[in-house]
Structure formats: structure tokens, C-alpha cells
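Posted in: Structural Biology > Protein-Ligand Complexes

Title: Requesting predicted complex, thymidine-5'-phosphate in pocket

I'd be grateful if someone could produce the C-alpha cells for the following input. Sequence and ligand are given below.
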Amino acid sequence: MTDRGLFISFEGTEGSGKSTQMRLLIERLRNTGHRVTENQEPGGTRIGTEIRRILLDPVNAQMASTTELLLMFASRAQAAEEVVLPALSRGDIVLTDRWTDSTLAYQGEARGLGFDRVLATQRLAIGDLLPHLTLCLEVNVEAGLSRARERNRKLSTGTSEGRMDAQSLEFHMRVQQGYRKIAASEPDRFRIIDGSGEPNEVAERIWQTVAPLLRHVSRAAS
Ligand code: TMP
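-- Reply #1 --
Done. Output follows.
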């Protein structure tokens, strides 16, 4: 892990509002003079985007859990090398929409592969490149899932991203369980944020958590 920069990830179950909140935080950080680099998992790079399409296309319903695990880390290894590490060494704040905690919760817990197998794969793919802070938005799982499914139906313009949304409610409840387990074992890094209420209220909760870390990063102007 590099000493420079600040690495923050957003996590949450489907429809938790994390992508909206990440956009709001990026705006606020840039308005206060910080250099921000963004990433998304799976995705983030050209190669990662191709991997994302394979992972989320409902046509691949038969994908084995281990294939899914390895593809998640294949995208992340590319993002680590191409996006995250260079940005951190420039001293940027890097915000990523999902990182390894998603793999612990979705593949480790919900698919049943176990945390140990996910962590072993992580070491191979990205070493110890973990966020300094993780913001996990917690909402009602069922309501979030309906929102995400509705959004996918509306967005269906050729490439569908519904393979994970199509999993059962029980699967997504297990994802939430996975996140809670991580929060219990790493309370300093992994913060569960109440995702209910208006977006600006949630954004304020996030800002209260992020602001204390900002004194350690330099601003674009300095
Ligand atoms: P999202 O970008 O809309 O959040 O969608 C990504 C989907 O992929 C979401 O259902 C969570 C899932 N996912 C995993 O199962 N494991 C992972 O490691 C990551 C990054 C995402």
C-alpha cells in the first residue's frame, strides 16, 4: 500500500444509492480543491469494461462462482495497475465504486466461497491494495433491490446488466450479512452509513466521516 494519496471505496447492496453518493462526494472534494481520480468495479478501465459486460450479462446465468470470483479480480488487477496505484502515487484522492469488500460480501458470503478463498485471490491479484476508508451504505435490501431492477429495466438499451440483480432476495440478504461481518472485524476502516433519507442528508453523513482524513492529503493548488 502506498503512503501517498487517500483511497476510499463505496460499498452497498443493490440500489443503495452509492453511485449517487460517490458523485456528490467527488463534486464536494473537487470544489474544495482536491484532485480526485475515480474508478468503478467491475469496470474502470477499457479491459475492465469488457470484463464487466461478461460478468453482468444475464445470458451468462451459468457462470461458475469461481469464474465470477476470478473475473472480479481480473478487472481489479487491471484497475490497480492502470488507475489506482498511479493516482495514489501522484497524491490524489481515489474514489472507487466497489472494491474487494464487494467480493467478500457477494462471492465470499452470498455465493458461499468463503472469505479465506477471496482473500487468497486478492493477494495474488492486488496484494495489499486496500482502501484507507470504506463507506458502506445500508438501506432496506428489498426496497433497494426493487429500485435497482426497475432501473435496469428502464436502461435496457441493448446490453443488460441484470445478472446479479436477478439473484434472489435471500442472496442479497446474505450480501448484507457479509458486509456486517466485515464491519464487525474492521470497524475503523469499514463504516456502515445509514443510507436512508434524502441524498443530501446521506451526503452530509458521509462528509462527517471523510472530512477528518482530508488534512493528510494535499490540495491541487498546494
Ligand atoms: P454495480 O456497479 O451496479 O454496483 O454492479 C456491479 C454488480 O457486481 C453488483 O451486483 C455487485 C456485483 N459485484 C460482485 O458480485 N463482486 C464484486 O467483487 C464486485 C466489484 C461487484
